[in-house]
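Task card 7
Instruction: Convert sequence to C-alpha cells.
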Amino acid sequence: MGTPRISSTPLPGIGVRYDLTTREHRRLSVVAHREGGRTLSTYRQDDPDECALSVRLTAKEAEALIGALMPSHHSPALLSTTELGLVAERVELSSASYWNGRVLGETRMRTETGASIVAVLRRADAIPSPAPDFRLAGGDTLIVIGTREGVEAAAAILGRE
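Output:
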C-alpha cells in the first residue's frame, strides 16, 4: 500500500470530516468541529456504513491523542492559527468538482468568503500566489487562509460538484 489517502468533506456550520481507509480496509473518520473538538469514529468491517464506535473529544483530548499517535505531529490540514483568528487549511479539489478545469478567478473566493488561496500544490509542484487566470485541476490541493468561517465557506464552494 502506498501513501494513505485522507479525503476531506466540508460540513457547513459544523466543520470538516476527514475519512481514511486503512490497508486492512477499515474505515475511520474524524470530524473537526468548528469550536475545536473532534469526533473520532470507526466503522464495522462487515458493514462499512455502520458506525461501530464514536468518541467525542475536547480540543485538549484530541491534542493529547495526536501526541500519543505521533509525537511532534503536525496536522496535515490545519497549518496555523493565530491570536487574530486566522487559519490556513489544505483543501483538496476533487476531479468531480465543478471547478475542475476552470480558472481560479471564476470562484470569486475572496469576494464571496474573504478567504484567499495563497498556494496550490499540484503533484510535486507548489504554485505560490496563483493568479486569477490560474486553471484549477482535480487533485490540486489549495492552501486557503482566512477566518475559520471564511475557510469553511471556501471549502464548501470548492467542494461543489
